[in-house]
Amino acid sequence: ILEVFWDQGCLFILNNPQDGYDYGSVHFVVMSTEYDWTQGSRQYLWLEAHLAAVNRSKTPWLILGGHRPM
User: Fold this and answer.
1) pTM, entire model
2) Which site among 20, 36, 52, 58 is 20 to 30 Å from 45 CA-CA?
């Protein structure tokens, strides 16, 4: 299933530009730096909710990555 949305004058067709997963005691989060990630943006709100749901007892380490320098 593709997700389609309009942001900053551009049409985006994507399949989940962000994701998170556990590996041992580390929770990795990967997000697109090509899309808006400023406070209040769709991706920011996703990241905020995603990080709030991480079980820090199970995965005390958090690593955030993007594919371009922020």
Assistant:
1) 0.69
2) 58
Residues 6 or more apart whose CB falls under 8 angstroms from that of 25 comprise 58, 59, 60, 61
Residues 44, 38 contacting (CB under 8 angstroms):
yes
**Residue 21: both structure tokens together:** 């997963």
* Pairing verdict, β 3-7 and 10-14: antiparallel
Q: The tokens of 27 are what?
A: 């929770």
Of 30, 26, 29, 28, residue with least CA distance to 61: 26
Lookup result for tokens 């998170």: 20
In tens, the pLDDT along 44-57 reads 898 899 999 999 99
Amino acid at 41: S
Beta bridge partners of 67: none
What DSSP character marks residue 58? T
